[in-house]
Amino acid sequence: MRRTARGIAVLASASLALTVAACGGEDKATEEQPKADPASLTAELTWWDTSDPQNEGPAFKELIAKFNQTHPNVKINYQSVPFGEAQNKFKTAAQAKSGAPDILRAEVAWVPEFASLGYLYALDGSELLSDATDFLATPLASNKYDGKTYGIPQVTDSLALMYNKELLTKAGISAPPKTWAELKSASQTIKDKTGAEGVYVNPAGYFMLPFMYGEGGDLVDPEAKKIIVNSEQNAAGLAIAKDLIDSGAAAKPSANDAYGTMMTLFKEQKVAMIINGPWEVNNVSSAPDFGGLENLGIAPVPAGSARAGGPVGGHNYVIWSGMPQEKIDAAVAFVKFMASAESQAFLSEKLGLLPTRTSAYQVDAVKNNPVVAAFQAVNEAAVGRPWIPEAGQFFGPLDQMATEVLIQNKDPKAALDGVAKKYKAEVVPGYGL
């Protein structure tokens, strides 16, 4: 079905427009309006924040307060929505045309999907993209669908090896492991010499990607329209993760809330190494028993036989296409503020998050931030994900697979074959096996 523009809403900046993507219809332009005085903007906006409510939420609330210093009459209804629920919750509300937020913090893989369904405003030609060249290319690319741009990059990230410097030093390990084989050896040494577990592997699909990428694997080939998740390379990568647990080098993951268990053990110095991202830096460094930021080491994920790299991740700001036109000016002003270099630098300093603007890296708070510097090396090794509408649906089957392999002891290739069949039946039926 052909998708064209259904309407153009005039922004706060004269002659700039937002376009609604939907099925059928023709372009209809409204007359230009003068730029609004920030203090004169009056609106009530709902924002769904999908960040961690305890670790990251307070910093976003601080930014809202800063925004209201210059936009006192724009009320932001801040709602913390669990990340694991937000994708389907937004789709349900947008489809029903009721209850969707005006603005959403969307995971990078969600944007092409929401755009393909007509649930987002296209931002091309708007004030929000007037300085698009300032955004890093990969985060900006995640907002593209069918030649248009539907989101503004908020933060970029990837998975890294996070480690306890003190425990590695006690074990006589002078540098973080650079390969999975080195990680296995180091983990066993740490356990023998310190009593702490060497590493904790989170049994979730996203966290399996560094193992799969390490052997040269991937999930799909968009150009060939082929499902490759059950490749021998991916099976080999999963076998490495499984062996870490089976051999005792890694802690046996919990069947319930494995992620929470991983973080608790790491913060309590009962596990020396984990695979995780910058969103947990503030949580770890502020833990009373960890030893502060100076005890936290960050390095690229270990390499397999083919390469080293975690998945490109991050989040974007998107605007619901069902939002009333009279809120446009306020919504643009809010997103512009939240995505500014100053706001990104603020979040970087507070939380260790990685900016998506080139100019933000010139701000002293970012330039001199050791966490940002460490994660820049991590991001340089990150593996790009396919920005297709179905990409947001890949991880449900992958999560089930990770549980089967790492907790239920299922054969990696057999578990991946199950994922491939599910992709073919439910996610990308037009792709070949």
TrEMBL record:
Presence of the UniProt keyword Transport in the record: yes
Pfam families named in the record: SBP_bac_1
Listed SUPFAM superfamilies: Periplasmic binding protein-like II
Signal peptide start-end: 1-22
Keywords: Signal, Transport
Superkingdom: Bacteria
TM spans (from-to): none
Family according to the record: Belongs to the bacterial solute-binding protein 1 family.
Protein name: Sugar ABC transporter substrate-binding protein
Originating species: Micromonospora gifhornensis
